[in-house]
Design brief:
The structure is a single chain. With 193 residues, the protein is α+β, with helices and mostly antiparallel strands. It contains eight helices and eight strands. The strands form two sheets. A six-stranded mixed β-sheet has the order 1-2-5-6-8-7. The protein has a two-stranded antiparallel sheet with strand order 3-4. Helix 1 crosses helix 5 and helix 3 packs across helix 7. The protein is globular, with a radius of gyration of 17 Å.
Length: 193
């Protein structure tokens, strides 16, 4: 039957699998490189992004999620923490280049206005990659943070030890407009480098 802790971890992983299934995050079409996956939905509100892009009620937006299988494999590879971090960043940037291809003219994400990620960690890194934090916190930021902390503890090899050293208490929602994505990670941006 297992210990209470193992049952808890199993319950968190079952909830995560259900969430990923309901949002189609484990399908081939949702994959964006190795580090990320995307769910496209309609915006349920109007929002002005920092760069001037307006997302209106009903506009298509992309919600980015980490590829948990990739993250688990990366941590299980026996690399030192700094190497895990560097490889994660490299693969995330590669995923953003792939996302820019999918959002390019005539591709399947052409009509997506902006891309969002909600996270308890790495939001400083996402800002360096071009994402801008939203002024309004996501609904229930502490609840979202608690869920993401539980998921991280269930997936990370160090489990809850990793979380004891952290201050991940609130979730942050970050955005990048389609135009900014293409400018930073699209084909034209690659040629300019």
């Amino acid at each position: 039957m297992g210990t209470p802790r193992s049952r808890y971890h199993r319950a968190v992983l079952v909830c995560e699998r259900l969430y990923r299934f309901l949002h189609g995050l484990d399908t081939a079409a949702s994959g964006v490189g190795s580090a990320a996956c995307i769910a496209v939905r309609r915006s349920h509100r109007t929002l002005q992004l920092a760069g001037g892009t307006t997302i209106r009620f009903g506009d298509r937006i992309g919600i980015l999620h980490l590829n948990n299988a990739f993250m688990a494999a990366l941590h299980a590879g026996g690399l030192p923490p700094i190497a895990v971090g560097l490889e994660f960043r490299r693969q995330l940037v590669s995923s953003l280049h792939e996302l820019a291809k999918l959002a390019g003219p005539g591709r399947r994400l052409t009509d997506v206005k902006a891309f969002s990620a909600t996270t308890i960690f790495f939001h400083q890194g996402l800002t360096r990659l071009g994402f801008v934090p939203e002024d309004d916190a996501p609904a229930w930021p502490r609840l979202v943070a608690a869920y993401q902390r539980a998921l991280l503890a269930s997936l990370h090899p160090a489990g809850t030890v990793r979380l004891r050293r952290s201050s991940y208490r609130r979730a942050v929602r970050l955005w990048m407009s389609r135009e900014n994505l293409l400018a930073r990670y699209g084909a034209v941006a690659r040629l300019a480098r």
